[in-house]
Amino acid sequence: MADERIKHVTMPKWGLSMKTGRITEWLAEEGETVSQGADLADIDTDKIVGTLESPEEGVLRRIVADVGAEIPVGATIALFAPPDVPDAEIDAEVAAAREKLASGELEEVAGPTVATVEVDGRPLAYATLGDGEEVVVLVHGYGGDKNSWLFVQEKLAEGRTVHALDLPGHGESAKDVGDGGLDELARAVIGFLDAVGVPRAHLVGHSLGGAVVTAVAAAAPDRVRSLTLVAPAGFGTEVDGEYLRVFASAASRRELKPQLGKLFADENLATRQLADDLLRYKRLDGVDAALDKLVKTLLDGETQAIDAASLLGSTSVPTVVVWGREDRVLPVANAAAVGERAEVRYVDGAGHMVHMENPGAVRDAVEEAVRRG
To answer: Cα 262 from chain centroid?
Structure first.
């Protein structure tokens, strides 16, 4: 029987569609004592490379998965154990893990539970992790979906219920966005809370989603325990209008991919797979009309058309704001519009997709907002 002190680190399931991951770099070495939460390995999910954090503190005794290897979700990629566990026992566990991988007999890893609710006659899709009493709702940005929170949702769900919502017009939700206005989208989020029976929640919003959850807090402050705004729209005036317009109109990878590069500090994170996934979404019936309406909501010529800053100023909901210093879609200068109303956390080396480029910084901000709320 294996020593129970030997702990297996497995390939995580980041997002609904992830089946395998490829180790691109190990960030710790065999024999090293690794702190819980420290960076352990970079993993390519096809959509984006994410960093796996150590699930516990201990000695990394063996690296099981080689760099470049395509590993199924749930398979052992490393082993932790105290120094006094004999090498022979570690080697036996490595052999057993590799035999299990070769046989294909891996336990299925439960990812988020996907469901839909009806709000104002429209189905809204969402993915849920956790079952705690405290509820967090994650709201994506323009053109995104619930999968954009793939590196954030799992950790936040420890001891909580965390829903990642597809806004109208996005993901697997209805493509009808009504008039496409901010109030329309805010009503959808409030209707979602009603439909899943949540009287009050901590709301987290990225980009357009940041403006939406701010509007929810202004319209129904009794429903919101805290806000975390990630590069939110509606603060300041600066915006890359070309990005929004081309995203709405692009029909080919050649048109879309250069715009997607603007989302990240490192343009290489805008992969071919990401572009192909978005093009498939854009070909769905009703998506073009939805995106066109939302562009009109977001833009007034070359400036932002909505004012979420004044909405935030009208509320007293505890709020933390996160902004990537290299954001090219909604430049970091817009953070000045937050004023004294909330703490702003600036993230070096991150662009507009802070929650994908530095998910730890976003999770820390959410934890702080939750603590205050």
So the answer is: 17
How far apart are the C-alpha atoms of 231 and 322, rounded to whole Å?
Answer: 6
Structural class in CATH, domain 113-372: alpha beta
Q: Tell me the C-alpha distance between 78 and 80, whole Å.
A: 7
Average the pLDDT over 230-251 and give the result.
Answer: 96
Nearest to 321 by CA among 335, 334, 340, 307: 335
Question: Cα(7)–Cα(82) distance, rounded to whole angstroms?
Answer: 10
Q: Which of 332, 208, 205, 356 is nearest to 271 (CA)?
A: 356
Choose which CATH entry (3.10.20.30, 3.40.50.150, 2.40.50.100, 3.40.30.10) describes domain 7-103: 2.40.50.100
Confidence at residue 106, expressed as pLDDT on a 0 to 100 scale: 66
Can you tell me whether residue 324 is helix, strand or coil?
Answer: strand
Domain spans of the chain?
7-103, 113-372
SS3 129: strand
Distance in angstroms (rounded) separating the CA atoms of residues 149 and 49: 13
Q: How far is CA 19 from the centre of its chain?
A: 18
What stretches of 242-289 adopt beta strand conformation (E)? Answer: none
Q: Which residues contact 283 (CB under 8 A, 6 or more apart)?
A: none
Does the predicted TM-score (pTM) go above 0.70?
yes
